[in-house]
Structure formats: structure tokens, C-alpha cells
Amino acid sequence: GFQAAPGAPWPYPKVWKNSTTVYSLNSEVFQMTGNMMHCGIMSEAVQRYLKLVFFEKNVRVDRRVKQIKSLHIFVEDEICHDLPDENMKESYNLAVSESSTLKAKSIWGALRGLETFSQLVYTDSDNTYYINKTDIIDEPRFGYRGLMLDTARCHVIQ
């Protein structure tokens, strides 16, 4: 494998349309809103991802480019599932523009979209946050997630 470039998601989503249009983000103004903020999983994830996205403390705001002030998260299935299940739809659509939106079928799809959004944000040498105009449509490659056990490493060599 290789490391993704700044502002690029990894692994690559199913559909990724990236643009050269750049927006700035201001950590003091930017907020994430949505219809599932009453769900503990979503509200905790939003707080966690805001800290991940805005990891630097002393940042500058580039006033030469337009600023994104919010990401609106809309979850179609309004049930607050504690854990994903085998029938859950984890697909999402992420549109980064002046009015950015993340639309997901389930709360767990929204979490996948938040992870992708956090990977799209990058900083320059002046500690300014940027994100490119982007449209992403993504879903898990396989319908069922599994677990792999590495049984070859269970023996101690003396």
C-alpha cells in the first residue's frame, strides 16, 4: 500500500469527484449539524471528529478563498443503532461545497462519511485548514464484514 496524499481519502471510495476549487475552514466557526444529534453515538462521533479535523491550535484563516461554515449530516434511518448489523446499509453521499452535506442510510454510514470528511481536510505550511470541493458516493465493497485470525503466529519459537 501507499499513504494517501493530503486531502485524499484512503481507501478510495467507490466514486470520488475531486475539484481544484478550494475552501478554507475556521475551527472557531465550523460546526456539524444534523437530524441525529440526539443519538449518543452521533453526538460523540461529531465531537471526536471535530478534534481530529482541527488538530492544530494556532491556525490562520485564508480570507482569499470562500469558507465552509458547516457540514449538515442527514441520516435516513432515524433509529439510533448501538452496533451495526449484517442488514445495515453503510452507504453515504458526501458533497463538499459552500453548503456541505453528508447523507447516509444509517448512523453507521454517517460515521463512515465523517471518517472520509476528516481525511479530506488538510493544512498548509501556514497552519491554514483547507478542503477541496468534492463529491463522494461510497458503500462497503462487501455486504458482510468479517474477522481474520492469524493462527500462524500462535507458536513461540525457543
TrEMBL record:
Residue stretches in coiled coil: none
Classification via InterPro entries: Beta_hexosaminidase_sua/sub, Hex-like_dom2, HEX_eukaryotic_N
Gene3D superfamilies: Chitobiase/beta-hexosaminidase domain 2-like
Beta-hexosaminidase eukaryotic type N-terminal domain mapped to chain residues: 9-120
Listed Pfam families: Glycohydro_20b2
Keyword terms of this UniProt record: Hydrolase
Top-rank lineage group of the source organism: Eukaryota
SUPFAM superfamilies tied to this protein: beta-N-acetylhexosaminidase-like domain
Protein name: Beta-hexosaminidase eukaryotic type N-terminal domain-containing protein
Species this protein is from: Tegillarca granosa
